Amino acid sequence: MSSTSLEKHRSSDKAIGETFEEASTNSDTAAEKAVLRRVDRHILPFIALIYLFSFLDRSNIGNGRLYGLEEDLGLKANQFQTATSVFFATYVACEIPTTIFLKKLRPARFISSIAILWGIITTLTGLTQNYGSFLACRLLLGLAEGPLFPGLIVYLTMFYTRKELAVRFGYLVLGGALSGAVGGMLAYAIGYMDGLHGLRAWRWLLIIEGLPPICLGLFGWFFLADSPGSAWYLSPSQRKTLILRGTRDQREASTPSASTLHRSDVLAAVKDWKVWAFCLLNFPGDVQLFSYAIFLPTIVKAINPAWSTLYVQALTIPCFAWSAMVYFAAAYTSDRLQHRAVFGILGCLVSIVGQVMLIAGRGVAVRYAGCFMIASGIYVVSGIALVWMPTNLPRYGKRSTAVGMQLMFGNSAGIAAPYVSPAIPPHVTLEKLSLLSVKNWGKALSDERYTAIYDGSCGDDRRVGLQRGGQWGAVVGDGEYQ
């Protein structure tokens, strides 16, 4: 970067710093809290519900498997695993383009539209008659659902500050975790519909579970706002307060240049080794997560084959409900302490304990308790990793690209997951993946430079900007002055 360009950036950052000082002095904390509560009421329930049904619609075939899905469609050998896996092929292909170009679209309309689309596809999946049509629906479902999660993450970063994001991201994790509990309850209830109007229970399961996202999409079309400046549910003064909070939180990102998509920012994300490190950080944990979410009914059934299918569906509910409570406790504490790595490592260790209990445990109670331990760890690992990186990349182009890369790499674990755990007891491979996660998270914690830039372990000045020679220089994830 030339000295003239550097001086230009430093002057801009200094002006932002002065604006920040003035804004901090005049801010009304009570007014901010009132605005935040209103934003929470309008955004968080909706994103939790829409992601709940997204996760439900991708993993419900695990419940349907117990109701004769494989037999009715004539699936042989590992065709069920293939149908589970191909969903992620189209799913991950959509993630980077979504995060990069979301601002050029209308985020609220885009998110609502894809919800309607995947709801229709899920319902039609319940009408498939053979392996080919079932496979095609799974591919289309991945294409429709792929943009949702990265889109929601970028959407949340537009409304909340970095210190608030772990708990708010927790609503996405909550939706994913509770989808298992809701799916178990629905599967239990719909099991009594087996044979109604000549349709098996698994068909009713898919048809019924496709309807809520259609309704949510129609509702969100009119309910969500595209940005803080267009939040119709806030007064003009409240919208100004919301924008001001973002200005204070991300000084560099408050400049028009930093808030706009630039090719240089996209390339900066691709070239940043720490972005790739986070991608590797996610993969082992996500293999466990997807294996657990899809195969838990099969796991529980194998713990005691004498249990009825309806009883097994009911036993999956507490595991997912427990995982949601554990993650929220971890996310709240992580936000308060502004530390991430320690929680990721603890989650990996707890998951390992659960895997050992499930693999080597003697007795039904010990192995079932292992399911709770696994759930306690894997959702914390995945959730904390997702909030760690985007909160430390203030420039929109680099942040959105990095989030897309992280999610694409992590969700590609869904391609491998069905083959890692095709039979129960789970292969020891899952335990090795847990140990690999601990190794990766330990590297993140032990590398002082890595942790200082990407964690809350350093002071606010270090995380937002460094004072150099009386001038503000923005740290853009890699500690370099941009």
Key words describing this protein structure:
two-stranded antiparallel ribbon; 482 residues; 22 helices; globular; mainly alpha
Give a description of the structure.
The protein is mainly alpha-helical and 482 residues long. Helix content is 75%, strand content 2%. It has 22 helices and two strands.
Quick overview of this protein structure:
This protein is mainly alpha-helical and 482 residues long. Helices cover 75% and strands 2% of the residues.
- Span between N and C termini? 8 Å
Morphology: globular
- The fraction of residues in strands falls at under 5%
Q: Could you state the order of secondary-structure elements as H and E?
A: HHHHHHHHHHHHHHHHHHHHHHEE
Structural class, judged by helices and strands? mainly alpha
Unreliable residue runs: 1-27, 422-482
Helix content: over 70%
Please summarize the sheet with the most strands: 2 strands, antiparallel
Rg of Cα set = 23 Å
- Tally of helical segments: 22
**Arithmetic mean of pLDDT:** 75
Strand segment tally: 2
Lateral arrangement of strands in the main beta sheet = 1-2
SSE inventory with pairings:
Elements: H1 3-26, H2 29-65, H3 69-73, H4 79-93, H5 95-101, H6 107-125, H7 131-145, H8 148-157, H9 165-190, H10 201-209, H11 211-223, H12 236-249, H13 263-271, H14 273-303, H15 309-337, H16 341-360, H17 364-388, H18 396-411, H19 413-420, H20 429-446, H21 448-454, H22 460-464, E1 465-468, E2 471-474
Antiparallel strand pairs: 1-2
Helix pairs in contact: 2-6, 2-9, 2-10, 2-11, 2-12, 2-14, 4-7, 4-18, 4-19, 5-8, 5-18, 6-7, 6-8, 6-10, 6-11, 8-9, 8-18, 9-15, 9-17, 13-18, 14-15, 14-17, 14-18, 14-19, 14-20, 15-17, 16-17, 16-20
